[in-house]
Design brief:
The complex is a heterodimer of chains A (289) and B (402).
Chain A: E1 2-6, H1 13-17, E2 22-26, H2 42-51, E3 55-60, H3 66-77, E4 86-89, H4 94-100, E5 107-109, H5 118-121, E6 131-133, H6 140-148, E7 153-159, E8 163-167, H7 171-178, E9 191-195, E10 198-208, E11 211-215, E12 219-220, H8 226-229, E13 235-238, H9 245-257, H10 262-267, E14 272-273
Parallel strand pairs in A: 1-2, 1-13, 2-3, 3-4, 4-5, 5-6, 6-7, 7-13, 12-14
Antiparallel strand pairs in A: 8-11, 9-10, 10-11
Chain B: E1 12-16, H1 20-28, E2 33-37, H2 52-64, E3 68-73, H3 85-94, E4 99-102, H4 105-114, E5 118-121, H5 130-139, E6 143-145, H6 152-160, E7 165-172, H7 184-189, E8 207-210, E9 213-214, E10 226-228, H8 233-238, E11 243-246, H9 253-273, H10 279-286, E12 294-295, E13 321-329, E14 334-339, E15 343-344, E16 347-351, E17 358-361, E18 365-366, E19 375-376, E20 382-386, E21 396-399
Parallel strand pairs in B: 1-2, 1-11, 2-3, 3-4, 4-5, 5-6, 6-7, 7-11, 10-12
Antiparallel strand pairs in B: 7-10, 8-9, 13-14, 13-21, 14-20, 15-19, 16-17, 16-21, 18-20
Classes of the chains: A alpha/beta (289), B alpha/beta (402).
């Protein structure tokens, strides 16, 4: 199982590459909720990662219109494609773009919520893509079962603030407009939503060029499941949005040692949750026995 | 108006139906097709769903009138949800269902492999570009329901450049985020939005904070106004959209009748004359239904504050639908009416699918024992109401209620 992660600071790249097997990068025109867009430096970052024999993944995780897909194609052509291990996309329309550029074998499909059973997970197997992300909202047992039936590589969101909501609407902008105020909240990573009946957890919200995104306030973790997950997961993602590169290094080391260090978690003042790994969602909200 | 634009297949008006009565009302009030949820594999688990017998009767009723029935099988199944799928799909086929609406390749592939059911791709797949539509068409789907996060130009561009039929929403509730990609309900309530448990968490109120401090007293919400395409329907017809979809399997009989009939009249006027003379009249028709506030959604670009819902919860409980006509005796001029809400000896309106609404003063009504009454006090009773003009089964009585 390989562990790949996000990058905040180019200066931290060398240290990060000592523990991570790969790095997720992107450009904000084509990706949502990036930890950083290195813009003109992106190709240098890619080269550095490859010099260290590590893998590079480009995030294309927006939902696209037709004109945006045309722009994606131009963007991909500007990249050193041979140096890139994979392109992670949320939109099935990207498959066509990948085919046109003859890089279908580098496509990783990530619709976040949708791949909840083995048939759905494997649906693109005839397209010979690189892999797909299993849904974040299913149990460990389902993930293992899907993994045992996988027809390509299984990517898994393993640690970080889980995305719960993605809208094309610019909801902080419209909210400020409703209050007759100018919008100073775009790309602000310090905002949270609090709900009266759920006082223990508040939910990060970001508005970026892709739209509005809401996350779990608690940090998802897979420590209790890592030994079983290793048998089926090919790529384990440590997402450090709202966190930093030092955190990534600490966390990745813990997963490699399969040992949670409570002192480090305490230092970051985090509450960890394990999502739906051991607690399946239901229809009417009742808890499973 | 260029009549050459209109040489094309007639646009279908597609209505929701939570149960058999609503299916019949939707068709009688002008739907060309209805979509319903069966007892399995459907979102809207809390809606009234159809038994197999209801399904057979519903398809028979629809087909006798040249209309169609689609069944939503639009859940995103987990591993253990696969059981019984083939049998269920074959039951739908035996009942003569015209198509399923599905989002999961498990269900889509199974239907294509084991039945002759037509497959429509659900909005839960958020198809918003040509290659995505073509992906599903090439898989074997005949129609794709577009996501609602797209403007008119984008809908037109897709419609003109694909072979698949395109279906677009024109009225009703909208997801605040990309449909199918939202897990707010899952995480905040443990209810799986993709298997029928959506708690509409996007409509809740939240405090917006920065670094732990509330930055405004105004509550934040992600909820949006409902969609209403009264003024956009003609554009959708012109661009060749195959089906215009009204959302709302949870909605009432009266809501379905009112909304369906309004859009039926818009479509018919436009198809007959090439123009709409008075949009305001149709807006007034729609206002009889218990709507939330509406807007044009994404049709004219990225939504502004005018398309969002803040602070107010605008669902209006109307109680203006007071009776359903069951039959009419021409000799006595008494209609048998099933009561829906309380009403008195007062002015009533007859809302009919094919005729203009008419009002009358309700001067005489009798209970089931033939006793004169001045107040129809309970719902679901059959009473007699004197109506001085002909009415028909399924006509609706409305009272003025604010």
């Amino acid at each position: 199982m390989k562990i790949i992660t996000t990058l905040h600071d180019q200066a931290q790249l060398n240290d990060l590459l000592k523990v991570a097997d790969g790095i997720l990068l992107g450009q904000k025109r084509f990706a949502k909720t990036l930890t950083n867009d290195f813009e003109a430096q992106t190709i240098d970052v890619i080269k550095k990662i490859r010099e260290n024999q590590k893998e590079v993944y480009i995030l294309l995780n927006k939902v696209f219109t037709d004109s945006e897909l045309n722009d994606v194609k131009s963007y991909l052509k500007s990249l050193p494609i041979d140096m890139i291990t994979g392109f992670i996309g949320a939109d099935l329309g990207l498959l066509e773009t990948m085919k046109e550029l003859d890089i279908t074998s580098k496509f990783v499909y990530n619709p976040e919520t949708l791949l909840t059973n083995d048939v759905d997970f494997n649906d693109l197997s005839s397209e010979h893509i690189k892999g797909a992300f299993v849904s974040k909202e299913i149990t460990l047992e389902d993930i293992i079962e899907i993994g045992n039936l996988k027809k390509y590589e299984l990517f898994y969101f393993g640690h970080g603030h889980m995305s719960m909501f993605y809208s094309k609407r610019q909801m902080l902008n419209t909210f400020k407009d409703y209050q007759n105020e100018s919008n100073n909240l775009h790309e602000d990573h310090h905002l949270r939503l609090s709900e009266a009946k759920r006082p223990d957890e508040s939910y990060p919200i970001i508005e970026d060029d892709a739209g509005t995104h809401v996350f779990r306030g608690y940090v998802f973790n897979s420590f209790k499941a890592i030994e079983r997950l290793e048998s089926v997961v090919d790529y384990f993602i440590v997402d450090t949005l709202f966190l930093d590169d030092d955190y990534a290094i600490d966390i990745i080391n813990m997963y490699k040692e399969k040992q949670i260090d409570a002192a480090i978690i305490d230092r970051y003042q985090q509450t960890l949750h394990d999502g739906f790994l051991f607690d399946e969602s239901t229809i009417k909200g009742e808890k499973n026995d | 108006m260029n009549l050459q634009l209109r040489v094309r297949k007639m646009t279908e008006l597609l209505a929701p139906a939570g149960d058999l009565d609503k299916l019949k009302i939707a068709i009688i009030y002008g739907a060309d097709a209805v979509f319903i949820g069966g007892k399995a594999f459907s979102l809207r688990a809390n809606a009234s769903n159809f038994t197999t017998e209801d399904l057979i009767e519903g398809c028979r009723f629809a087909h006798e009138r040249g209309k169609k029935v689609y069944v939503t099988t639009n859940v995103i199944p987990h591993q253990k949800d696969k059981a019984g799928l083939i049998e269920y799909l074959q039951t739908l086929e035996t009942a003569k269902v015209d198509a399923i609406i599905a989002a999961s390749p498990l269900i889509i592939n199974t239907a294509l492999a084991h039945t002759n059911l037509e497959v429509h791709i659900s909005t839960q797949q958020s198809a918003l570009n040509i290659p995505t539509v073509n992906y599903w068409y090439n898989k074997g789907a005949t129609r794709v329901v577009l996501g609602r996060d797209i403007d008119l130009e984008g809908i037109g561009h897709i419609t003109k450049n694909v072979d698949a039929e395109i279906e677009a929403f024109i009225h009703g509730g909208m997801c605040a985020g990309y449909s199918g990609r939202c897990a707010l309900s899952n995480h905040l309530t443990n209810r799986d939005a993709n298997r029928g448990g959506c708690a509409h968490t996007c409509r809740w109120f939240f405090d917006l904070t920065k670094d732990g401090k509330k930055i405004t007293d105004t509550p934040f919400s992600m909820g949006s106004k409902d969609l209403s395409a009264v003024k956009e329907v003609t554009s959708l017809i012109d661009m060749g959209v195959a089906s215009l979809k009204i959302e709302g399997r949870m909605k009432s009989l009266h809501y379905i009748a009112t909304v369906v009939n309004t859009y039926r009249r818009i479509i018919d006027e436009y198809e007959a004359t090439g123009e709409i003379k008075d949009y305001e009249a149709y807006a007034k028709m729609l206002a009889h239904a218990e709507n939330r506030e509406t807007s044009h959604g994404f049709f004219h670009g990225l939504p502004t504050k005018d398309q969002q819902l803040y602070e107010k919860r605008s669902e209006r409980v109307m109680q203006n639908f007071v009776g359903l006509v069951l039959d009419y005796d021409h000799a006595t001029q008494y209609a048998t009416v099933e009561t829906k809400n309380v009403f008195l000896l007062e002015e009533l309106e007859v809302f009919s699918p094919l005729e203009a609404s008419k009002t009358f003063m309700n001067e005489k009504m009798m209970d089931s024992n033939g006793e004169l009454i001045i107040r129809a006090a309970r719902a679901k009773e059959q009473i007699k109401v004197y109506i001085p003009f002909e009415v028909h089964p399924f006509d609706m009585l409305r009272a003025k209620r604010t």
